[in-house]
From TrEMBL, chains A, B, C, D:
This is 3-deoxy-7-phosphoheptulonate synthase. The keyword Nucleotidyltransferase does not apply. Pfam families: DAHP_synth_1 (PF00793). InterPro entries: Aldolase_TIM, Class-I_DAHP_synthase, DAHP1/KDSA, DAHP_syn_2. Keywords: Transferase. The keyword rRNA-binding does not apply. Residues 87-325 form the DAHP synthetase I/KDSA domain. Signal peptide: none annotated.
Length: 336, 336, 336, 336
């Protein structure tokens, strides 16, 4: 169950109630939620009637979700997240676009121009790149963050970029509007804890062998650390099929919507691995009810240092955006 | 390569050319194609210039596709298939709907009424049911076929139903407009050969562990036996995720469109396994560019004898059709 | 539950009891078991006490296994199967070896000589080959069966070969000592029914996306048709890993042993897809407690018409057999 | 290629050669290898003859392995690793046993007594536990490390335990003989870099969706940071089969042996998820040629705080060890 304390309760109050619960056989976890304190209690036999009578308690939610904070029992309305004036999760559709990796000021500027002109919502670009081989290009690091910040200033586009280790989170959060956790790090719990304390919205990619429940539990690590601003990102799971790089699991969209109040974004580029599938999968994500997409776009795909095969060119992206707007329109939505 | 003989060539001509090819080290396969004879030659070192000069040869196509007949090299334009006056694959969108299994005249009539009133294209219903357990309901058999034929007459809806063994194909083809090959039978080569000779369009479901290439090779078995009217049906692949019954692979839509000229239909019901995901996945299939969907609809889902969890109710189906028509409209398409 | 009738009961008795059960709300299935009649009843609310009092009933087994005939509830002791004087499943270890496909009398004789000299138990060889592509070598068909029968006579080795469609089963059963059902056909129910009536032991390969439960249910189709002589064969499942052709699931050995009384054979060759892994996996299968292995051996692997990469050479096979005998010996077993 | 510098070369020499390579279009990576400096050069067009003539160069190895340091081209003989006087990888067989998580001094002592009396090689026990849910028991942390160190002193057993974030590595390395990287962290590159600098042997578990090549590349991250003492640990991959927790991929043993000189250990407990399969899979691992196993053993499995279902009891473990020694003996090996 989730015990929500009254507004004026402080940390000490939470500690006292937790102690009381422990004395009655409970296993309480204290969570610093924006504007109030929560106590999660997994023991089944705590008396709810007793709890509700305590003056310090505002609400008791009897959730048996394995992921109580991200579950619909705790919060029935869908979460809306604000990023630099754009609202995500309220029926608008977020289009995050940009290069897989930040390579240079020129590349970023040229790609951002495409993103702006296509009226997409945000700019993506990796500064720290988790790469399968230690001998592959690892990203520009802090220099990449600086270039992103520059481009944000110039173009006005909010920026999403990835943090790949706990000690980078603070720096990434300074430069970025949204901090991304990559698929390989979905169960990097130290990293999840850090982004849970970073004060920025988080884009949490699904691990390539993660069930939807494990993914929601990863979101729970972020939320449990005090950050309710989690966007889930479906980016394909690993299967036997090799014609695409991963298998995009669009059923995750209605499933997540049913189980959780968190918004869900789809990454057609990394799942497909080849650009020709990306327009189809982008439209499919919108039609399936996702809250947005994150798409690899490059001013010159053939020369990209990372995942060149999957980046849309300027023309491909613009044409996809036109179709996307039309599909969204008949579903009563529009690009954020 | 594919060697197309001139219109007036007959089987004997094909045999003679095949013998000639063998004498030059070839491995020719003769295919009876509608209106002409084809010879498939997999040997690499046959002289094309020589072949083209033969008076009996109309065309030589240098395909190196592992699946030459279903490949875009042999036929660049998309295949269109006519079913009882409806054309599939020409930009219209096929909606096949009906119960998983035919249970009774009443059930079929009630469900067909829903299908008709929602303006779907065709009626589905299993008479022969392949079931994981020998102790599950196995379908009504020929009695089910008779009920389908009756309902076709009454409602005017063309009918799709499954054949599960070679010896049933002829009977099924008598009653049905389209003969379905189920996922479990995708590599049942004797069955593929029979449906290749049955004279009816074939709906070929993807095997649950089949790669897209293996699926196209299964289509090749049907085509190779003389039947070019194959509709591919993506129905989800088996993965580790258990929140849905199978994982619908919508990337298969653009991939199949690129590799093959055959139409591709999507089955959101069997992939999802639960009805709540079906509307989302239906719209996603349309947006991804599929040529149609096949959807489980039941007049009373709770009482269905087979796959009850995944059938849409009448209301759910009608509401899905409304959204579907609107998405199709902005993509310049409409339900067949 | 499984109702075993007394020895002198006949089909009519079984029919009468089935009718009685139906009148009480049951769903009885009559099974012709060697030496007696069985009735499987899946309804939960039939009164066992009443049944046990009927003079025609010898035994009532309250199994709730989804696969009652292959389950340990019905038969606690492990099934032993006799093939040409060799017993399988009693602690001996079966080694079936031979070429993937029968190619010629010479190839078969040369490979059989290797099999004999290595003291393996049986000869394998495909006459009907299920191939992914219609343009691949499809086996020699009946001519291949004749060559196998000839070689059996000459070498004294019992023979295992595959049936790929229902109408071939009778012919295959005439020539072979054991009828194989391939992985692609594990859910080809018409074929399972035929081999269930063929009077020969059956080697039932696991489908490449089949769960262990689905595999036992496939065995149940064979047994349900009257044939208790089923050997299960684990041959690898399809996963994301491509370094081996399939992923051999050796945990299936203890799992099957726990759930079922049927013997389990392991196919290291088809799972690995490359010969260098086969010796390791053969020893592992023996150590894991399997009842045997089926191994691709070819007198000249480089020239094999089918699956050349995975066949052991004569020397490799003999050396593997030496190690195998030593591992079996310390586990109190030996090659059959 | 890998350029090995002469013994007396120092970091400055390596830097100078790297600069020279860069000036010729190369992309050198400097690696501090025990006793010498290495330079990895991935550019294809560097002149080897020129390199070999440089007095600072001792050896040039023309590996094109994606994982050059862990590949057999660079080092053809198998790596041997010393842990507290026991050698791993030289034909002996390592048995690491102990509880999934350290729970208390008493539990650890009781389990260590079982490990000692069964003559296993090392003690395992998790102090930092990566858990899918933030609400599950997370391990005792540093207190768990202290208990392990105490028990090591008392029992003389070397200790393996896991580090789950970069900042813990130094502490874990102080207490443990071998530092484990768990499956979830196989691509946690910051963690891999830290364990690459920790001076202790590393047990690197395969990620649950990692290909063998990705796993070797993860090892490469550790080695590239200067630590050649990597033991790979196969612990099952995620597949559709749910009868076991994961699917143990024993083919990984011969494949790793062929591609790499690193030792490979097998974890039957985490792959199976249930104790009854563990004895079979332990023997299978030994027969397949693995260099060891890591097994969950608990003095009282029913009360275990973590993964209770998979722990062997004292009796089960001892009896498995007896069988294991016998299988190893006939293969010319014995427990380390």
């Amino acid at each position: 169950m989730i015990i929500e304390l009254v507004d004026h309760a402080d940390h000490e109050d939470a500690e006292q109630l937790a102690a009381l619960l422990r004395s009655r056989g409970g296993s309480p976890h204290i969570v610093r939620w924006p504007g109030r304190w929560l106590i999660l209690e997994t023991a089944q036999d705590i008396d709810e009637t007793w709890l509700r009578q305590l003056p310090i308690v505002a609400r008791v939610v009897g959730s048996t979700d394995p992921h109580p904070l991200s579950g619909r029992k705790f919060q029935s309305v869908s979460t809306m997240i604000e990023v630099a004036g754009r609202w995500i999760g309220d029926g608008t559709f977020l289009v995050i676009a940009g290069p897989c990796a930040v390579e240079s000021r020129e590349q970023l500027a040229a790609t951002a121009a495409v993103v702006t002109s296509a009226k997409a919502s945000m700019l993506r670009g990796g500064a720290f790149k988790p790469r399968t081989s230690p001998y592959s290009f690892q990203g520009l690091g802090v220099r990449g963050l600086e270039l992103l910040a520059e481009e944000r200033l110039r173009s006005g586009l909010p920026v999403v970029t990835e943090a790949i280790q706990p000690k980078d989170v603070e720096t990434v959060a300074e430069y970025a509007d949204v901090v991304q956790v990559g698929a390989r790090n979905m169960q990097n719990y130290a990293l999840l804890g850090e982004v849970g304390r970073c004060g920025r919205p988080v884009l949490l990619k699904r691990g390539l062998a993660a069930t939807i429940q494990e993914w929601l539990l990863a979101a729970e690590y972020v939320m449990n650390a005090g950050n309710p601003q989690v966007m889930l990102c479906e980016r394909g799971i690993r299967t036997f099929e090799t014609a695409s790089r991963f298998t995009l699991d669009l059923a995750a969209v209605p499933i997540v919507k049913r189980l959780s109040h968190l918004p869900i974004i789809v990454d057609p580029s990394h799942s497909a691995g080849r650009a020709f599938m990306v327009p189809s999968l982008t439209l499919a994500a919108a039609a399936a009810g996702a809250d947005g997409v994150i798409v690899d776009v490059h001013n010159d795909p053939a020369s990209a240092l990372c995942d060149a095969d999957q980046a849309l060119s300027s023309e491909e992206f613009k044409s996809t955006m036109v179709d996307l707007e039309r599909v969204l329109a008949v579903l009563g939505r529009h690009v954020a």
